[in-house]
Inverse folding.
């Protein structure tokens, strides 16, 4: 069996035929100029309040950073993306070690307009859920407690505001990411696949509106992502 065949066999065993096929399709599409394929797995994670003894760290300080405090040299994110996030009411929690920013996590308390594809994700129900995204840990700190401490601080911040679930999208073809979220208690809430061909975006989703065509930023699908605790979502 060739190395490619072995890799494909392992991939099928880990993520199934459908996702393995999408992975291969994405590898082909990314070599076509102007074309991209994004496969999102939509998940909900319960907010846990941990004992006080587990929340503190003498090494890292984690706090909310305002638009005025945020320094765009901290992390590899374009300044215009950061400004757009603050414009729509997003919250950034940053971890510092000796005044050096070493990690961050973003939250949006309401509908979040994605900056990777043209889509608005609506966490439901309002006030009891938040959208979390773009968790980043600087490479030298990815082995250690920082990721866990950042999530602990996030849970504390959310719980103090009555939020019971965080909703998010993860790469549906990334086995390590899927497993990491499962360990955090994540539950599946749906899926969405976006095919970009030049200015055309085609969305296929397990959630309404299920199929959507977009030619510009004025045509954006809204996906209501429902936390597991309640009934049918109201995307309005």
């Amino acid at each position: 069996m060739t190395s490619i065949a072995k890799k494909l066999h392992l991939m099928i065993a880990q993520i199934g035929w459908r996702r393995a096929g999408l992975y291969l399709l994405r590898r082909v599409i990314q070599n076509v100029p102007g074309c991209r394929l994004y496969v999102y797995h939509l998940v909900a994670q319960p907010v846990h309040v941990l004992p006080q003894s587990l929340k503190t760290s003498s090494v890292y300080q984690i706090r909310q950073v305002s638009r005025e405090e945020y320094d765009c040299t901290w992390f590899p994110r374009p300044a215009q993306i950061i400004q757009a996030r603050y414009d729509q009411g997003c919250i950034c929690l940053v971890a510092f070690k000796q005044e050096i920013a070493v990690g961050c996590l973003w939250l949006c308390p309401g509908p979040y307009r994605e900056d990777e594809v043209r889509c608005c994700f609506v966490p439901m129900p309002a006030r009891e859920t938040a959208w979390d995204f773009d968790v980043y840990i600087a490479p030298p700190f990815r082995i250690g407690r920082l990721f866990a401490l950042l999530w602990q601080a996030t849970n504390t911040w959310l719980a103090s505001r009555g939020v019971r679930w965080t909703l998010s999208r993860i790469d549906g073809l990334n086995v390590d990411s899927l497993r990491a979220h499962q360990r955090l208690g994540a539950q599946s809430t749906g899926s969405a696949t976006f095919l970009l061909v030049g200015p055309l975006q085609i969305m296929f989703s397990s959630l309404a509106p299920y199929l959507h065509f977009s030619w510009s930023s004025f045509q954006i699908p809204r996906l209501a992502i429902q936390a597991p605790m309640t009934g049918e979502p109201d995307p309005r």
